[in-house]
Write a structure and sequence with these properties.
By secondary structure, this protein is of the alpha+beta class. It has one domain. It contains 5 helices and 4 strands; from the N terminus they run H-E-H-E-E-H-H-H-E.
Length: 107
Amino acid sequence: MFSHIYPNIVDGFELKPREENWFDKGVLRFFTQNEFLDYSFFEYGGFYDWAYVYYPNRCIDGTVPSCHLHVVMHGCTASYQLIWDVWVRYSGYIEYAVSNDIVLLFP
C-alpha cells in the first residue's frame, strides 16, 4: 500500500524494505482518543474510546527532519475491543513505517 500511495504524493519517495525489528526501533502506544472526537458527529461512525499510535524513534529523536503520518483505517472486525493489538502488530504496516519514517495512527 505504501508503495502505491506515497510516490503519488511525495516526490522522490522510494519505499525501503521492511524492518522486522520494529519493536526496538519505535514506540507503540495505546491512548484515549476521546478528546479528539466530537461524539455528536461520530456517534454512529464506529470510533472507540481507545486507539494506537506507532512512531519510529527516528521521528522523535531528531535523526530525520520530518516524518510522514499515515492513518490506518481498519475493517469492521479489527477494533481493539475485538482483537486488541493483534491486527496493529501483525498487519505489516509497522515494519514498513519504521524503515520509511512514517508515524502510524490506528483509530
